[in-house]
Structure formats: C-alpha cells, structure tokens
Amino acid sequence: MLPTFRPSYDAIVVGSGPGGASTARELAKCGMRVLVLEQGGAEPLTGTVTQMAAMAAVPGKGAFLHRDASLLVAGITAGGSSAINFATAAPPPQALFDRYGIDLAPALAQLRAELPMAPLPDALVGPMAARMMAAARALSLDWQKLDKMIRPAACRSGCWRCVYGCPFGAKWTARDFLDEACRLGAQLVDRARVLRVVVQDGRAAGVEVEVGGQLHTVSSPLVVLAGGGLGSPRLLHSSGLGPHHAPFFSDPVVAVMGSVDDIDGGAEVPMAAGLSLHDEGVALADLTLPQPMYAAFAAQVGRVDRLFAHRRTLSMMVKIRDEIGGKVGPRWADKSLQASDRQKLARGVGMAKAILREAGAHHIFKSWHFAAHPGGSVRIGNGVDADLQTTTPGLYVCDASVIPEPWGLPPTLTLLCLGKRLGSRLGQEQTGLQGAGTKAHENIIAPRGIKITELR
Fold first, then answer.
1. Which UniProt keywords apply (predicted)?
2. CA geometry: angle at 234 spanning 203 and 376, to 5°?
3. 177 phi and psi, to 5 degrees?
4. How far apart are CA 446 and CA 396, in angstroms?
C-alpha cells in the first residue's frame, strides 16, 4: 500500500540511522509533525545472512568496491548501519568537538542514563575473545572490555548474530529510537528514495521522493539529511547544493586470523574487548565472524587451506584512522590508502600477529582491507556549521558525513549525541516560535556557531 502524505510537515528526516532516528525522536517529543523517509526496508530483523546481504551487500546500494580492492559497506535499512554493526559504544572525543564549539557532554549524559551501555558480563565473553584478551595482557597491552549497546538479559552466549541483525532484541539499534518517534506521532515511510531537496526562495522547502514507482513532492520548512557518509553528499549534489565529488574517510579494517588446536567454537559476541592507541590512530579488538564471512575472507586471499578451520580460528580486527581523501561520486566511491594509512595498518597487523602467536595460534594470515564507517564528506566547518546547518537555510545534515576530522572510532554513540543535540534545539525553537505565533521559521534557520569556510 502506498503511503498517504500530509500536505506539509514541520520536519522531514531523510534516513533513519543513529543520527536521523535520534533527531526524529527529539523533534517528535516536541510535538512536531515529522516525516522519516528511509531508502531501505523496515521488516523485522531475522538474523539471517540472506537479509543481511540484502541490506548491506547489494553492489552500488550498500556495498561498493573501490581502489586497493577494498570493500566499503553501509546498512540500507531502517536503523541504518546500527542494525548490522557490532554494538560497540565508543564515546565522542570531546576534545575534537571542542575545537568546533560543540559540547556533546549533556547529550551523552542523557543517553548513558537511558541506553544499555556497559561491558559484557563475563558469561557473555566467548572463549575466543577471552583467549585473545589473556594473550594481549600477557604482552603487557592495555586490553580492556568495551562498552556494548547490548541488553545482557536478552543476549545469549554462543551467538554471532550481531552483524546479521539481532532477532532477539538483545542489541540496541536506532530502530528503538525510530519506533519511539513513531509512537510520538512521527510517520515512517520505508523504501522511499529521495531524489533531491526542494529549495524555494533560497531555503529548504521539502523533498522530492519516489515511493512505489510514484514521484511525490513533500513540503516542509526543515529538512535533515541523515543518509550517511555516502548518501548525504550525493543528495546535496543531486540537489545542486554540494560538490560533484566529496572527499571522505572510511576507517579501513583488516581481519587477522590464526588457528588454535584447543578451542572448538566460532560463535560468540564480537568485539567484546580491545585496545585503542589514539595517538597512533590504531585500534584492535577480537572479531569472531560468522562462518560465511570468515570463509569469504579466507578465499579472498587464497587461503583455501583454512576454509574449514572457522571453529578453531581466532580472528582479530585491526582498524585505523585514515586520512580524508578520495571521492564520493554520484554512483560510486573511490578511495586509495595513503602511505600513512598503510603504515598504521602494518603497525596494527604486527601487533595482532604477536597477540595471536601468544595465544598459541598458527597458520596466521590477514584479509584484504574493508571499511564500514564512511564519513567526513560534509564536514563540520566545511559543509555544515556547528549547528549542522548547510549554507541553505532550513537544511541540516546529521550523520557520519559531518564528522569534522579523520575518525577511527565506532560512530554510533557520537551520532546519537549529535542527533539529540540537533533535534532538541530545533524542536525547542519550533515550539517557541509556534507559541509566539510570528516569524515562524526565520529564527530556526539563523546561522550560528562557526563559519562554513567552503564546500569542496
């Protein structure tokens, strides 16, 4: 059934990942008429490889091959990539945002009070993660449990479905906030492909969207793009409001794997613990993968001798903070590793191999690099101001594309903070303007914060 749109809305949010869902929830809390448009589907998560592939492995939609034989993936579904991430809750680096006049501490405190966010209890740390933790600590590395956005009471040991889409309600995703926004009156339309932002008299006036093969123009004086590090710059370009090509970061990841003889497992919550070398831009964590993903990595690098060793293989993630570069184009993404990126990966891979050897692993090998955190393509101070507003009044961006500097962190919690901050401010200003009954959208769009230097 095709959706019925209102003649106009108080706000339109394009995308329902952490940034979009958090913004929509705050706007709905303030009584605003909110429309959320999601390109992917909103079917319940089933935890199957088939559904995950449809959300994140369709070439040109959720998966992109670019230089250096790297695979770049993004979740095209309700909740965005939070539906298929590893549920790691890294706090926003306050010093970074302080440089741009942004205080996320109040939003972070509120989110910590309401979301499941803590290290896994020992009973949910699998034997592979525990083995790697012990080995890292034996090498005097500061290997610690990571905060996870997981409800332990609903989680189960011996499960690997975080990355497939948890069907048990154990993993928190942005769908939780999306559901709350809808309970508060927001309207969600899924499988909706937004084509462009409509601009009238120099300011945002709505969007043009295709649903079920039909084209609609939906009106609103506020539009928030939350289509992700690839989607938002593309929408800006297609609307004539952004550059043809946008540089970005991708947080490259390599999986380093080695077999042991005394563990028979292969199914456990990934990224239970790890190590972050902030100054070096390198992070490591255990990364137990589902068997099909493991087999794909082994085959990718010609290690057919290890295809059937999944249940005995320790797998470790090496992730780096890469330099911003490359291009997000209208239908593609292209980014090569720079020399400094390769040095970071080599440093991390060397550490991972040493840990695996300490853990008693043999037949150690590594995958090609892949990436799942594209961002920095509409950066704060470059594409948006400190309030996440573009140079077009009434048009905002709230997703990983606004992260202002090279990253290297799980972005979910940071995007939730940014969305909460943006939605609360816009909602409060809208409520105040409605109460005053005059100059209804002019103050909302007044530029504040730092100056946008340029779009490039």
1. FAD, Flavoprotein, Oxidoreductase
2. 95
3. -70, -35
4. 12
Cα within 13 Å of Cα(22), Cβ side: 30
What is the dihedral sign for C-alpha 58, 211, 24, 234? positive
pLDDT score recorded for residue 122: 95
Measured CA to CA, the distance from residue 146 to residue 143 in angstroms comes to 9
Residues whose CB falls within 8 Å of the CB of residue 67, separated by 6 or more in sequence, listed in order: 326, 334, 335, 336
Place of tokens 């992109």: 64
Query: In sequence order, what are the residues at sequence separation of 6 or more whose Cβ sits closer than 8 angstroms to the Cβ of residue 157?
Result: 123, 124, 126, 268, 269
What sections of 148-209 are H helices per DSSP?
Answer: 174-183
Confidence at residue 65, expressed as pLDDT on a 0 to 100 scale: 56
**pLDDT at residue 454, rounded to an integer:** 37
Pairing type for strands 333-334 and 325-328 reads antiparallel
Q: Which of 241, 231, 276, 227 is nearest to 383 (CA)?
A: 241
E strand or H helix at 261: none
Element (H, E) at 288: none
Nearest to 382 by CA among 243, 176, 212: 243
Cα separation, 453 vs 381, whole angstroms:
6
User: In this predicted structure, what is the pLDDT of residue 438?
Assistant: 40
- Read off the tokens for 199: 């601009």
Q: Which of 60, 59, 14, 54 is nearest to 37 (CA)?
A: 14
d(CA 215, CA 14): 16
pTM beyond 0.85: yes
- Residue 17 DSSP label: S
Rounded CA gap, 270 and 286, in Å?
6
pLDDT along the chain (456 residues), means of 10: 90 98 98 97 92 76 58 84 93 96 97 97 96 98 97 90 92 97 98 97 98 96 96 96 92 96 92 96 95 91 94 96 91 87 97 98 94 92 97 98 96 98 94 55 36 37
Q: CA torsion sign, 134 to 135 to 140 to 144?
A: negative
Residue 313 structure tokens: 């293989």
Q: How far apart are CA 197 and CA 113, in angstroms?
A: 36
Compute the Cα dihedral for 107, 112, 115, 116 and give only its sign: positive
What are 292's two structure tokens?
């099909």
**Two tokens at 117?**
């966010």
